[in-house]
Amino acid sequence: MSKKLSEMSLEELWELFPIYLTEHQDCWSKWYEEEQNILKRILPTTKLGLQIYHIGSTAIHGIWAKPIVDILIEIPNAATLIIVKELMIKNGYICMSESDKRISLNKGYTEKGFAKRVFHIHLRLLNDKDEIYFRDYLNEHTEIAKAYENLKLNLWKKYEHDRDKYTAEKTEFVNKYTRLAKESL
Q1: What sign has the CA pseudo-torsion 104, 115, 110, 170?
Q2: Alpha-carbon distance 167 to 137, whole Å?
Q3: CA 41, 50, 71, 108 torsion-angle sign
Q4: What separation in angstroms does the CA of 94 have from each of 29, 91, 108, 131?
Q5: Positive or negative: CA dihedral 122, 22, 171, 162
Q6: Is this model's pTM higher than 0.90 or not?
Q7: What backbone phi and psi angles, to 5 degrees, belong to 17?
Q8: Residues 168-173: contacts with CB within 8 Å, 24+ apart?
Q9: Is residue 53 in some structural domain?
Q10: Contact 173, 137 (CB under 8 A)
Q11: 114, exposed or middle or buried, with CB in 10 Å at 0-12, 13-18, 19+?
């Protein structure tokens, strides 16, 4: 009998769910739209004042990415953040991390590895949406998007089983172009 995900060490999880990049897939935008519709059915988006966005590399045109669709849900206040988290957990999402202002949930992780479709849901308070600035900047500046793709491809095998280091190595690049995106507004 295999271990439950909640019983696995970080190293076991990284081994089961390695960094894997693939060429851009047109289906990612469709996956986002379908998941967005699911989220709108389970969350009273209008009543709660929620905004839902496709973020991450699958939302950047033409670059290699992990085949994981990142979704940001912008939430007006901390009380609503908790309500949304509870509704999502009731509907099969797994809470991965939580603070007073941010919650991350996943869908598509199983004891046998990735499901066909995998989603990372980022719950954020109003105006905590740097990923949208970054996404839009890279979609407008294809040469920067390609530089980001090259960075990720160079980090892929080196940190295939260490998501924290993979992410840390991209932070300076992401912060630089997020700042430039905000300055250009």
Answers
A1: negative
A2: 19
A3: negative
A4: 22, 9, 9, 21
A5: positive
A6: yes
A7: -125, 70
A8: 173/147, 173/148
A9: yes
A10: no
A11: middle
How many CA atoms are closer than 13 Å to the CA of 41, on its beta-carbon side?
A: 7
The end-to-end CA distance of the chain, in Å, is 54
Place of tokens 């996404």: 135
pLDDT-based confidence at 101, cuts 50/70/90?
very high
* Domain count within the chain: 1
With both helix axes pointing from N to C terminus, report the angle between 142-156 and 130-140 in degrees, rounded to the nearest 10. 110
- Provide the domain limits for residue 151: 7-183
| CATH number of the domain within which 136 lies | 3.30.460.10
Report the SS3 class of residue 150.
helix
User: Is residue 50 a contact partner of residue 84, using CB atoms and an 8 Å limit?
Assistant: yes
Q: What is the pLDDT of residues 47-71, one digit of tens each?
A: 889 999 999 999 999 999 999 999 9
Largest CA distance in the chain: 54
Q: Report residue 142 as tokens.
A: 């294809």
Distance CA 83, CA 114 (A): 27
